[in-house]
Design goal:
Helix content is 30%, strand content 11%. The chain folds into 2 domains: 3-101 and 457-484, Phosphorylase Kinase, domain 1, CATH 3.30.200.20; 102-455, Transferase(Phosphotransferase), domain 1 (Orthogonal Bundle). It is an alpha+beta fold. Helix 9 (269-275) runs antiparallel to helix 10 (283-292). It is built from 17 helices and 13 strands. It binds adenosine-5'-triphosphate (ATP) and magnesium ion.
Length: 487
């Protein structure tokens, strides 16, 4: 079957049986389902297409369009698009994207204390991630939301890149084209975007790749800023502040003057990485990180070069093993949503002794920190500077994001609850009324969906409840701490 026909086949959702919810994104929920005829498991993303003013959500349009062009073993396969049954309440309101099912996402695995990562896992996954990304970049496509929860992994260790809702084509020849600088989840966002660049390329994804590698090697996200300014600060603390020699064009960036560091800091990433006692670090991993987490995007390692790096040619070799140890017992899946739900259900533990590592997301609302934890304490001067930098001109909202003026804020307020965002320009949160997909997120579209477990009903009726639930009603929006920091 050809790529486009595969992604384009229209059927109805009643060919599938819903098993359980496995994900919750900005624009819809993701369910593990089973094809009633073949018994094959699939992941179905439910997308409301009529809740927002602009109609069909732009993220879904992008995802469908781009995934139809991207066929690669390290990119999740969109198999079909299906609709609600004819005459159902959701007809015209909802579409369903049917994906191949993957047992886990990386965020879920990193949070799960039953999973022990080895140096082999890390290298094998990084290789596959880089292969998938190189394929995108070769096709002139930027992903723009590389983070652990968008990296899917199956029990055999195969990895696929998912969530192309923020992806876009880019042009190498037309350097005038401006792209939104408000893409990529904050902790994975590169310094050029934090400094307002609107003319960027594949290097933005490679910074995120460096962050993912650091997260796996160190055991927690490398740069956990509490807000926009703080994100820059924790980056500068390890990577040094921009200078003429390490980043000749930095002062031309739109927000450089606004976020100009008050004093110079030397780069100390390499000695820092060498000094920490990370289980899965070695000289090659440190060297690779040092080449990925480079301030100047023009000097950052590309996906192509990365695949040539010595790290991949030293033991343990990153290749498929004949009989890999399953990551978790069969039928145990591990997605960010599930691990969060499980954590919510557990009584609060004091001291956090159980966690094998700090988790992505744990730091969303906490004091900003560097991998050493050194950034946690703030001097009064730092705090004063942060306040004053948001006092004139662009200001920072309670999520640490930029507010340009009151009309922007009013525009954002008006849009709360809107489920759609426009084309790339409209993703720009600095444009009035835009609803960015990545951090901080706007509250999700409201829905009346009832958690299946709470609903006394037959299995047949249950499947009607979630996947076929109507539009409208009122789940409370996520709290700001949930919206920020981990997205
Ligand atoms: N094919 C799949 N197989 C298994 N799980 C999946 C699949 N696709 C998505 N998921 C799960 O659902 C979650 C949300 O999916 P996805 O990231 O595509 O949605 P989204 O609405 O764009 O999310 P967000 O805005 O939070 O990034 C993923 O993090 C993953 O845990
Ligand atoms: Mg996602």
């Amino acid at each position: 079957m050809s790529g486009s026909s595969r992604a384009g086949r229209i059927g109805t959702i009643d060919s599938y049986r819903q098993l359980r919810q496995i994900g919750e994104g900005t624009y819809g929920k993701v369910y593990l389902c089973e094809d009633k005829q073949s018994g094959k498991q699939v992941a179905i993303k439910k997308v409301q297409i009529s809740a927002g003013k602009e109609g069909f959500p732009q993220t879904a349009v992008r995802e469908i369009k781009l995934l139809a062009q991207l066929r690669h073993e390290n990119i999740v396969r969109l198999e079909h698009i299906v609709t609600p049954p004819k005459g159902s309440a959701q007809e015209g309101d909802t579409i369903f994207m049917v994906f191949e099912y993957m047992d886990h996402d990386l965020e879920g695995l990193l949070r799960d204390t039953r999973v022990t990562l080895t140096a082999y896992h890390i290298k094998w996954w990084m290789k596959q991630l880089t292969e998938g990304l190189k394929f995108c970049h070769d096709k002139r496509m930027l992903h723009r939301d590389i983070k652990a929860s968008n990296i899917l992994i199956d029990n055999m260790g195969n990895l696929k890149l998912a969530d192309f809702g923020l992806a876009r084509n880019y042009s190498e020849t037309c350097s005038d084209t401006k792209y939104s600088n408000k893409v990529i989840t904050l902790w994975y966002r590169p310094p050029e975007l934090l400094l307002g660049s609107e003319t960027y390329g594949p290097a933005v994804d490679m910074w995120s790749v460096g962050c993912i590698l650091a997260q796996m090697v160190i055991g927690k996200p490398a740069f956990m800023g509490a807000n926009h300014i703080d994100q820059l600060e924790v980056i500068f603390k390890l990577c040094g502040t921009p200078t003429q020699s390490n980043w000749p064009t930095h002062s031309e960036l739109p927000w450089y003057q606004m976020f100009r560091p008050p004093h110079m800091i030397d780069r100390c990433l390499r000695p820092h990485l060498e000094s920490i006692d990370a289980d899965h670090s070695d000289e090659h991993a440190v060297d690779l990180l040092d080449k990925l987490l480079v301030l100047d995007p023009a000097r950052r390692m590309t996906a192509e070069k990365m695949l040539d790096h010595d790290w991949f040619y030293n033991e343990p070799l990153p290749q498929r093993r004949e009989r890999p140890e399953p990551l978790l017992p069969e039928n145990v899946s591990c997605h960010e949503y599930e691990t969060k739900q499980a954590a919510k259900a557990r009584p609060r533990e004091s001291g956090g002794g159980e966690g094998r590592r700090s988790r992505a997301g744990d730091g969303g609302a906490q004091a900003p920190t560097s991998p050493t934890g050194a950034g946690g304490g703030r001097s009064g001067r730092d705090a004063k500077r942060r306040r004053s930098s948001s006092a004139g001109g662009p200001r920072i909202d309670e999520h640490g994001e930029l507010i340009r003026d009151s009309s922007f804020k009013a525009g954002m307020e008006r849009r709360r609850g809107s489920s759609s965002s426009g084309a790339d320009a409209a993703y720009d949160p600095l444009a009035p009324g835009a609803a960015p997909k990545s951090a901080p997120k706007q509250p999700k579209p409201q829905s009346t969906e009832t958690p299946a477990a709470e609903t006394p009903a037959s299995a047949g009726a249950m499947e009607q409840m979630d996947l076929f639930a109507g539009v409208g009603g009122g789940a409370p929006p996520p709290s700001s701490s949930e919206l920020f920091g981990r997205k």
